Amino acid sequence: MPHTAFSAKFPPPKPKNIDRRTREYLTPAEVTQLMQAARHVGRHGHRDTTLILLMYRHGLRVSEVTSLRWDAIDLKTALLHVRRLKRGVAATHPLYGPELRALRKLQPATPELPYANPANTCVTSMHH
After folding, report:
1. Contact at 8 Å (CB) between 106 and 46?
2. pTM strictly above 0.90
């Protein structure tokens, strides 16, 4: 006999992602919109916009971007060294114009670049 009332013991089944949304990615226009919103919210707009851009262009997870360090970013050779988590393979990615400009602007402003977690506390810092 199926159980129809929901409780902590019998929570409702989680809908499959395909039933909730038709795609698992953002379009370029949506990323631009997200970056514009991030630029104007809070006091770390440029930092947040830069992180969104890096996540989008390089397919970084939140945990990967929050553990990103300045020594993994080579602005002279325009390379980003990514240590993948969740059984991923480490790789070196090229950095292009908008990313390079954003990172160069960010670096002098924040010698220790903190990334905030949802509790708004420093998770890690990037050292040059």
Report:
1. yes
2. no
